[in-house]
Structure formats: C-alpha cells, structure tokens
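Run log // design_07
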C-alpha cells in the first residue's frame, strides 16, 4: 500500500474503490492484487514490485558477468557467457520497468488486432502506472494448460500462430510464455499476459530463419551454413569447411523421422549446443531466449496433445509468410522452395506448400478468428469479381466453390505467386495444344508424318519438317505437372465433378473466369504474350538451320 502511494503520488483509496487485502498472484519480481478503479468502476489487476528487487538482480548479474569474463580465458569454452548475460540483463532491467511493460502490452495488442482478433491483451491504464506499479484490465479465465474445454487444441494452434507471427513477422517477441501467462477466457479467446520480458528481432534475423528453413527442406547444407553466419551462430570470416560436415550430420539425423516438418526442435537445439564445445559455433543470445520460449510453449501444447511437434505446427505459418510477404528475400525463398537448387518446377513441392497454407487458414479460423473476421482467417476466402470481360459468354449460375489454395491464387494477395506460376501455365498450354494436334493428326491417319514432310525441300535455312507438332520428354513432365496441380486445386469443388473421364476444360474456364481478378487487363494479355514468345522461339529453333 505504501509503495502504491509513493509511486502514484496519492493514497490508494483515492485511485481504487476496492483492493484485495492479499495478493491474487505472486512471482519472483512482484505480486498482483485485484481492484476496482474509483473513476469508472473497471475491475483491474494491480501489479506491485517487490522491495529491493532492482538491487538484488543487479548484484546477481554483476557476479555472473564477472564469472563470464574469467571463462573467456579458456578457449575450449565457446559459449559467450558475457554476451548472454548482457542480453538477459537488458531484458531483466526492462522487465523491472512497469511503464515499459505496459507500453509493450499496448504495442503487442495493436500488432495482433487485425490478423488475430481472437488473441486478447489486458488494457494498460497509463494514468495509474509507474516504474514499480502497473494497472491493467482484469482478465477472467483459466490457465490454458489446465483447461478441460473442448476448444483448447484450437487455442493452442492460435497460440502457435501468434508466437510465430511475433518471431517471423513483427519481430516483437513475448519471451515469457509460461502457463500462468496464457489464459483461456470464458468466451473462448486466448489472453496473453505479462509483457515485461520481450526481445526484438531484426529483419535479417526474421528473414534469415525462414531462408534457413527453406534450405533445410532441400537439405542444402552449404546454404544453411551461410545462413548461420547471417544469424550470428558463426562469426564472419570463420572457415566454414570444417563445420559443414558436422552440421550436415546433425541435420541428417534430425530429418530422419520424416523430413523438416517432423524435426524435434528441442533435440535439434541441444545437438547444436553440443557443437559449440568443439567448433567456432555459438548460440546467439537472442536465440537462447527464443529456445526457452518455444520450449515452454511446446510443453504447454504437449499437455493436451502428446504428438505435438513445434516445427510441424510452424510449417503452415511459414508457408503463409512465403506466399504473402512482399519482401524480395522471402519471394526469393519461395521460388527456391518450389524450384530447389536444380531450378526445375516441383509440382509436389508446390502442393506441399499450398496444403500447409490451407492448414494455416484452418488454424487461423480457430478460437473465433473466422467469426471476428481476422485478416489471416480471410486469406482463403475468394472475393467475387463484379466485372466480366466476356459479357453474355458465361451463365449466371451459383458462384464456384473453391478450396482455400485456389481461392488464394485467384485473389489479389495471390498476385505474386500467380505471376510466379505464369511460365508454368504457358508451358502447360503450349504442351496441351501440341498434344491435341498430335492426337488429331493420328485420327486423320497421319500418325507419323515426318517422312512425308522430310520429302519437302528446304528453303535456305528453313526446314518445313520443323513445323510438325511434337511432344518431348520435357513436355510430358509439364503435362503431368499441369494435371497434378489441376487435380489438387479443383479437388472437392464443382470443377472436379464435371466428368468421370477427366477435366471438362470449357466448364473449368467458364466457372473460373468470373472470379479471376482483372483477367481481361492483367492475366490473359500476359499469358498470351508469353505463349506467343514461347511458340515463336520454338518455331525458329526447330525450322531454322
């Protein structure tokens, strides 16, 4: 009571009409009381810092840091204790400033409001907050880890998305997600408390982690080692050759269980930590905070789902980031994810990314995300187009029901990925056209017209036989890719039910045209331009000596 009066400049009864006589909750740095504001009757949580915490923490950090300075004299100890303590010290001192904690909570709430409205953060009453007293809105609920409600699994998914958004998008990371800080509210939302311990990530760190995951999917260990330099695991100028085979062995073992999505994050972090004893490889301080936070989050999730794996749960969010982020680095990472080192389009990898995206959409709808119209939940909703480039050509039937992946590709947000796929679409149209011509010639009795055309004399450098439509092995791969992708994108929709014999191309076109964004001014001209360039290049190649 005395501290509240000292910090806020007036006796507590002038501020709170009610205040519990004993703490409702307590922790190492402070304790929390339940009260009611006199000015408006709002029920609030009042956190009061314990006496002499600042002095105690300062002495502890001073002792540990001096020990770290001694350990620097032993080259076999590659862990940077001083750097780690400095990182923790900065966070600890920030955590002891309740004004900073209140501002962190307000900023966090703003970052989540549009994308994840099902995540709630208590309001900070800045008027009644000081360095050692924090007044926030009261949140009713129960610990997520102890709740027996049926929607706990969905809220865990929301929590995973929330933390991945912090880690890989906003760069403002809540580094203390222990069970007491994650609450299921009575209306089925996820409340996150206590923003004293946060860490901030740079764009290089955020993008570097996503790029490393893309390289890990393709087991491109040479690229991963370079990623680790960017992420500060390895210092600039260090010879990477001795480290590469060691890291390759660690990741090969981690990938044995079924690929990147099934990696055990805690085991991988432990194996990487072991490398630090023998090689110039270290766990950077910021990543130590991330490991701790993810480990706690995974522990909460495992209570309700013994099969939970954080990397598997993270992949859908990463797919969403790759598909929607406009930064050049992530667009390059998306292309690498689909094409790999070989530069050849991989239809199965494309489907893998799109399926992960659909899994993300399902998770983003959890906990009321769909009802609250969260931006992330609406990524898979196809908005109908009002303009029609071909009036009278199409019937006025019901709108096509599409799966989330197709809806995204046809939406404005899918514009980059759609452009990204135009070359494959053009190759597919070219190959399909020539395949149909070959079939028509066979029906007309020209199954092998090459001998006939070879009798036609050449005119200078011009070879008439080169005009014959042919199907190469590359064309067969392209046709197979087109079929695989079409079957995936139209699965479960009216488009896949047009015929038992295969796709009804005309119906596909008729149903998709009304929803293709600005097809008359954007997509079709680009497709036709690229198609004509491709056909002309092939004709010149095949008919000119």
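design_07 sequence
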């Amino acid at each position: 009571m005395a501290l509240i009066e000292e910090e806020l400049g007036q006796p507590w009864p002038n501020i709170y009409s009610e205040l519990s006589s004993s703490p409702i909750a307590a922790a190492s740095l402070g304790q929390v009381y339940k009260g009611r504001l006199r000015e408006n009757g709002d029920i609030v949580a009042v956190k009061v810092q314990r006496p002499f915490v600042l002095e105690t923490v300062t002495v502890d950090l001073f002792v540990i840091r001096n020990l770290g300075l001694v350990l620097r004299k032993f080259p076999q100890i590659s862990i940077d204790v001083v750097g780690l303590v400095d990182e923790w010290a900065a966070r600890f001192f920030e955590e002891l400033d309740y004004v900073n904690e209140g501002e962190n909570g307000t900023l966090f709430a703003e970052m989540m409001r549009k994308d994840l409205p099902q995540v709630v953060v208590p309001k900070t009453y800045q008027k009644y907050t000081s360095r050692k007293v924090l007044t926030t809105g009261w949140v009713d609920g129960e610990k997520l880890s102890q709740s027996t409600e049926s929607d706990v699994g969905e809220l865990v998914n929301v929590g995973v998305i929330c933390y991945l958004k912090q880690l890989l998008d906003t760069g403002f990371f809540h580094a203390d997600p222990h069970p007491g800080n994650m609450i299921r509210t009575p209306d089925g939302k996820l409340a996150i408390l206590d923003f004293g311990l946060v860490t901030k990530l740079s764009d290089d760190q955020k993008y570097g982690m996503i790029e490393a995951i893309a390289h890990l999917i393709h087991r491109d260990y040479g690229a991963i080692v370079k990623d680790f330099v960017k992420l500060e695991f390895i210092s600039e100028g260090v010879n990477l050759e001795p480290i590469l085979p060691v890291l390759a062995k660690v990741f090969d073992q981690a990938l044995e269980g079924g690929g990147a999505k099934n990696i055990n994050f805690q085991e991988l972090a432990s194996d990487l930590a072991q490398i630090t004893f023998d090689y110039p490889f270290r766990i950077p301080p910021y990543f130590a905070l991330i490991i701790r936070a993810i480990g706690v989050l995974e522990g909460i999730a495992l209570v309700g789902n013994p099969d939970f794996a954080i990397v598997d749960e993270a992949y859908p969010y990463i797919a969403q980031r790759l598909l929607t982020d406009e930064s050049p680095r992530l667009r390059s990472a998306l292309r690498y994810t689909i094409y790999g080192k070989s530069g050849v389009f991989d239809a199965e990898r494309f489907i893998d990314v799109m399926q992960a995206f659909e899994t993300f959409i399902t998770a983003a709808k959890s906990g009321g995300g769909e009802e609250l119209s969260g931006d992330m939940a609406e990524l898979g909703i196809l908005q109908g187009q009002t303009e029609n480039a071909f009036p009278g050509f199409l019937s006025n039937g019901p709108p096509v029901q599409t799966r989330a992946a197709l809806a995204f590709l046809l939406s404005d947000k899918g514009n980059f990925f759609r452009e990204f796929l135009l070359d494959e679409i053009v190759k597919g149209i070219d190959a399909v056209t020539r395949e149909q011509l070959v079939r028509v010639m066979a029906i007309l009795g020209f199954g092998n017209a090459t001998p006939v055309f070879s009798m036609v004399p050449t005119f200078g450098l011009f070879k008439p036989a080169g005009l014959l439509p042919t199907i190469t092995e590359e064309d067969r791969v392209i046709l197979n890719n087109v079929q695989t992708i079409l079957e995936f994108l139209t699965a479960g929709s009216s488009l896949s039910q047009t015929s038992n014999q295969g796709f009804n191309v005309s119906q596909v076109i008729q149903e998709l045209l009304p929803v293709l964004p600005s097809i008359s001014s954007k997509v079709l001209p680009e497709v036709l331009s690229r198609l004509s360039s491709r056909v002309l290049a092939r004709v010149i190649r095949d008919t000119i000596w």
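Residues 426 and 532 are 9 Å apart (CA to CA).
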